Amino acid sequence: MRKIGIVMGSVSDLPIVKKATSILDAFHAPYEVHVYSAHRTPDEAALFATKARENGFGALIAFAGMAAHLAGALAARTTIPVIGVPCKSNISDGLDALLSTVQMPSGIPVATVAVDGGANAALLALEILSVEDAELAARLDAKREADAQKVLVADADIDSQIKS
Which among 16, 28, 91, 142 is most buried, taking Cβ atoms within 10 Å? Predict the structure, then answer.
């Protein structure tokens, strides 16, 4: 399986990054985590993205708040899939980061998940890699089925909770 590259613009994004790494750990997926800023370390971020395919990455996940240019900066330097995770800050509850991440120019796509959506970013990266990995696809299918069963158990139990 190819690695997943995780890049956060600031160590303050680490709690959201951990939502992704816990999913990747559960799937035994290889990944690397780095802190590169689109603004403070643009050369390092660009080099990481430029060499991503050569270095065995199959998808990148970029976590950034506020100006949130990291996903776009990485996507501009590679053609492997980039998933942007806008992170909440104390400014506009993450809406600024969401808009900065999702509004990419034609030709430089970034898949964007919800604000603070680290878990979905990891699952999306795994789904991308599962296109060529039948075993991973089967494990993702099993997770979906297990998640559905949890909802059905809750549905079956809801009457007893309401009447208690």
Answer: 16
With vertex at residue 120, the alpha carbon angle to CA 34 and CA 51, rounded to the nearest 5 degrees, is 35
* Total domains in the fold of the chain: 2
Residues 7 and 75 in one domain: yes
Specify the 3-state DSSP secondary structure of 132: coil
Q: Do 58 and 2 touch, CB atoms closer than 8 A?
A: yes
Q: What is the dihedral of CA 67, 70, 75, 80, to 10 degrees?
A: -140
Average pLDDT estimate for 17-33: 98
pLDDT in tens, 141-159: 999 999 999 999 999 998 7
Could you tell me the two tokens for 53? Answer: 């395919």
Q: What tokens were used for 116?
A: 């603070």
Residue among 49, 83, 48, 52 nearest 68 (CA)? 83
Structural domain harbouring 163? 134-164
Please tell me whether residues 77 and 92 are part of one structural domain: yes
